[in-house]
Amino acid sequence: MKILDGRKISNQIKEEIAAEVAKMKERGEKVPHLAAVLVGNDGASLTYVGSKVRSCKKIGFESTLIQMPSTTSELELLKKIDELNQNNDIDGFIVQLPLPDQIDTQEVIMAIDPDKDVDGFHPTNFGKMALDMSTFIPATPFGILELLERYKVDTKGKHTVVIGRSHIVGRPMSILMSRKGWPGNSTVTLTHSHTKNIKDIVSQADIVISALGVPNFLKADMVKEGAVVIDVGITRVPDDTKEKGYYITGDVDFEDVSKKASFITPVPGGVGPMTIAMLLKNTLLARERHRSRGKS
Ligand code: GUN
């Protein structure tokens, strides 16, 4: 069994990006600038956005954090997005999800300029991804592809089972794993809450990608010997014995499943850190595209 070490690989990617930024500075060019919009004060979202902004500083990007109260109206948020779309200093931005109930998430995503949509959530970018065109690939699926590539995991002709059909992970992952090329060329089954015999289907998988958010959902008896297991779940479990009052766990019963898997991602330290690294990579790409189009 081999660990797909997201912490190590994400650090490598960040070093590669930092080296690119150093070259940009030497040439006297503008460095990439990422903005993040956070509406409300959900604990997990605050942690993720804080981590994204800190990573920008570490690798030499500029970053801007925009915090808006949980009572923000859709119109107020759309106005902020318009400002960010118009601001030539900003290469890319994200609106952290989930949003409060009074705001329609799809309206917000559609308001983002596709050229600045470094999350790859806008229908234009999502459509380009599905059509194998060059675009911003959503950071979590992009991070999983990068892990598979850097550990030289064979995906051609394999049966990949994706658990969960979210717009951020499951749906794009199912498209990407079936694409021509590598990592891809897989036969994909996308399972969800209405799937019958999910246990049987998962146990036929060569590659399992679980993005469900249910701790310890995936047990050893559901996994084929030698399977590749990717755990996208990040759940905070309350625990008074921990300093933070919780611990983080994934969808996979790591202890048992790791005995059968050929490759497995740990939680924490697997897919999570890769998501941030790939967001930074998308922001670098946004900067390069803006420069080549002479925007600034
Ligand atoms: N919420 C959970 N994951 C993500 C992500 O990748 N991007 C944004 N914007 N929100 C998220």
From TrEMBL:
Q: Which gene encodes it?
A: folD
Give the classification, highest ranks: Bacteria, Pseudomonadati, Bacteroidota, Flavobacteriia, Flavobacteriales
Entry's InterPro entries?
Aminoacid_DH-like_N_sf (IPR046346), NAD(P)-bd_dom_sf (IPR036291), THF_DH/CycHdrlase (IPR000672), THF_DH/CycHdrlase_cat_dom (IPR020630), THF_DH/CycHdrlase_CS (IPR020867), THF_DH/CycHdrlase_NAD-bd_dom (IPR020631)
Catalyzed chemical reaction(s): (6R)-5,10-methenyltetrahydrofolate + H2O = (6R)-10-formyltetrahydrofolate + H(+); (6R)-5,10-methylene-5,6,7,8-tetrahydrofolate + NADP(+) = (6R)-5,10-methenyltetrahydrofolate + NADPH
List, in alphabetical order, the Gene Ontology terms for molecular function in this entry. methenyltetrahydrofolate cyclohydrolase activity; methylenetetrahydrofolate dehydrogenase (NADP+) activity
Keywords of this entry? Amino-acid biosynthesis, Histidine biosynthesis, Hydrolase, Methionine biosynthesis, Multifunctional enzyme, NADP, One-carbon metabolism, Oxidoreductase, Purine biosynthesis
Q: What does this protein do?
A: Catalyzes the oxidation of 5,10-methylenetetrahydrofolate to 5,10-methenyltetrahydrofolate and then the hydrolysis of 5,10-methenyltetrahydrofolate to 10-formyltetrahydrofolate.
Stored PANTHER family: C-1-TETRAHYDROFOLATE SYNTHASE, CYTOPLASMIC, C-1-TETRAHYDROFOLATE SYNTHASE, CYTOPLASMIC-RELATED
Q: Provide the binding site for NADP(+).
A: 164-166, 234
What EC number(s) has UniProt assigned to this enzyme?
Answer: 1.5.1.5, 3.5.4.9
Question: To which pathway does this protein belong?
Answer: One-carbon metabolism; tetrahydrofolate interconversion
Read off the Pfam families from this record: THF_DHG_CYH, THF_DHG_CYH_C
Q: Which residues form the Tetrahydrofolate dehydrogenase/cyclohydrolase NAD(P)-binding domain?
A: 138-290
Keyword Amino-acid biosynthesis found: yes
Q: Which organism is it from?
A: Pelagihabitans pacificus
Q: What is this protein called?
A: Bifunctional protein FolD
Protein family (similarity comment) = Belongs to the tetrahydrofolate dehydrogenase/cyclohydrolase family.
- GO terms of biological process kind: L-histidine biosynthetic process; methionine biosynthetic process; purine nucleotide biosynthetic process; tetrahydrofolate interconversion
Quaternary structure, from the entry? Homodimer.
GO cellular-component terms in the record?
cytosol
Ranges for domain Tetrahydrofolate dehydrogenase/cyclohydrolase catalytic come to 4-119
UniProt entry tagged with the keyword Lipid metabolism: no
